[in-house]
């Protein structure tokens, strides 16, 4: 590994780390504009990268990636001569310096984030700074950890008549204070499905807020640590046993919680695929339509 500064010159310890690849001098025709692509790399497994994400990494002169959150296989898409920088050792200013260099030299940068960059990615501050610099930015969406964990658990998060909303949130009280009204306790009042990020280190507070908000103690919870990584650990418990489960397995980071009755609901079916439901592409069967209408009336929804 060679230490370099974000501008690509040899640097002191603590500067961004590169792999053994040689920093690229310039790969663009003179006058071509630089571009920053913010790439969602998914929850970990390299085959959960989208084709668009893989292409953006393959086209990049510089790849800035979150080594602690993204698996190294993702870099297999990068060019042999691409400069690889680990964002763990970089401040926002260091990253912006890379973008400035890209703008100056007409280079392409792939900034690789975990999951979907739309969620807790520090994405907006980069987009805003690029706008100030006049650097073109594209965002490539990724598979968020909450959808990956739902898939591993074999669950749909929206179940007819049980939960029709998903709240994506995190616990307050850490480095990032929550805006008023966005406490887990407040969201828990809805009783629907909740995906809680960034909160494993305060599992006691999480359990208290979920219970105070009104989830019954036996509400199902899925806890996923390093989902889709070789180290993946997926546990099922309830709101009442959440804290002891987290502590028993010593989970404090890289962990996601899915909470809510949808995680164990069964025996429901969606009206959309009911033979009595019609839409632009399918006719209803008359007897099934009568049965569906009768069921709706019995449930008081006419
Ligand atoms: C900085 S946030 C990034 C979220 C990411 N943008 C996403 O869409 O999943 C990091 C948090 O996401 C969750 N997370 C991300 N990847 C995960 C994974 N593979 N397994 C479990 N949780 C994960 C954890 O709650 C972790 O603390």
TrEMBL record:
Q: Does the keyword Methyltransferase apply?
A: yes
Q: Which Pfam families match?
A: TP_methylase
Cite the Gene3D superfamilies for this sequence. Cobalt-precorrin-4 Transmethylase, Domain 1, Methyltransferase, Cobalt-precorrin-4 Transmethylase, Domain 2
> From the UniProt record, which GO molecular function terms apply?
precorrin-4 C11-methyltransferase activity
Q: Where is this region: Disordered?
A: 1-35
In this chain the Tetrapyrrole methylase domain maps to 35-242
What the entry lists under InterPro entries is as follows:
4pyrrol_Mease, 4pyrrol_Methylase_sf, 4pyrrole_Mease_sub1, 4pyrrole_Mease_sub2, Cbl_synth_CobM/CibF, Siro_Cobalamin_biosynth
Sections of the chain in a coiled coil: none
> In which residue ranges is the amino acid composition biased (Low complexity)?
1-20
State the similarity comment: Belongs to the precorrin methyltransferase family.
Give the protein name, as stated in the record: Precorrin-4 C11-methyltransferase
What organism does this protein naturally occur in?
Answer: Streptomyces pini
